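Worked Example 4.2. Read the sequence first, then its structure tokens.
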Amino acid sequence: MTFSQPVVIGATLIVCEDKLSKESLLPLVRIDVNAGRTPAELQQLSRGIHDAIRAEYGIPQHDYFHILTEHPAGQIVAQDAGLGFERTNEIVMIQIFTQGGRSQDAKQSLFAAVAAKLGELGIAGENVFIGYVENTASDWSFGFGRAQYVTGELAVPRK
């Protein structure tokens, strides 16, 4: 199933553009938030994160794969882990799944860019929580039960 515009299914907003780049290390992004934001605010969150990734990693506009899920109160627990700050119910939990190969500096720049973009939307830095998960080209299937990087249907992205 592909969508050219964001689609809400239950409490999950799915954004998927159907043109895959053959040269980028595209990410899959999961975004979890507490319920209560408007559809426009959710779309701005998703687009802000995507814009930060595009700016930092140079991925094409259409490499846009986000899953945004709203949760009822009490289903997101994010304590400060001893860092000395408190989060609010405006927390945005982000998981970025992408192929390995980027430097620590590139990741740090991405984290800062995401926080800055979300800051433009009024989300405080302490409410931006990012988990970054790396994998390999063989860990992706874009449909039909095939690993297109393995089968050669897509070229393995350059780093």
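Now turn to a second chain, presented in exactly the same format:
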Amino acid sequence: MMSNTTDSQSQELTLQVSRVIPAPIEKVFNAWLDPKFLAKFMLPAAGMSAPKVTADAREGGSFSIIMQVGDKQLPHGGNYQKIAPHHCIIFTWESAHSIDGSVVTLNFSTTDQGTLVELIQVKFYDEEAKSAHEGGWDSILLHLGLLFNPNKKGND
């Protein structure tokens, strides 16, 4: 049985990852709301695909991303809480590996190299779950960058 302290600590765990994407802010922002683009970069691990993606990209709308590894399907979804064009997207994050009430915030800003995407996710079961999500989001941001700069391989 978990103690209240552990429950409270789980609620407070936060991760933050960021990456500069070599593209205009409008294109990077819109990619997060377009199912065709989401299917190409929502790939948190090697060997994954996202064969089915839907998005009702409006505040109060929902999205669904079915990630797949081999024959195993991993459903993810959530609801858009805030969409501030070219600045911020906030959505709930629901999956078998996420705690109820987990929320992701994406902040977008222009840099000399393109668009800085800052991703913050709150609420995890424990540090291990937080670490796994951090690696997944980092991979997703890497794949997003490769969409706009296909000649670049791997990390900076």
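Notes for the reader: The chain has four helices and eight strands. The helical segments are 4-12, 25-31, 35-41, 127-148.
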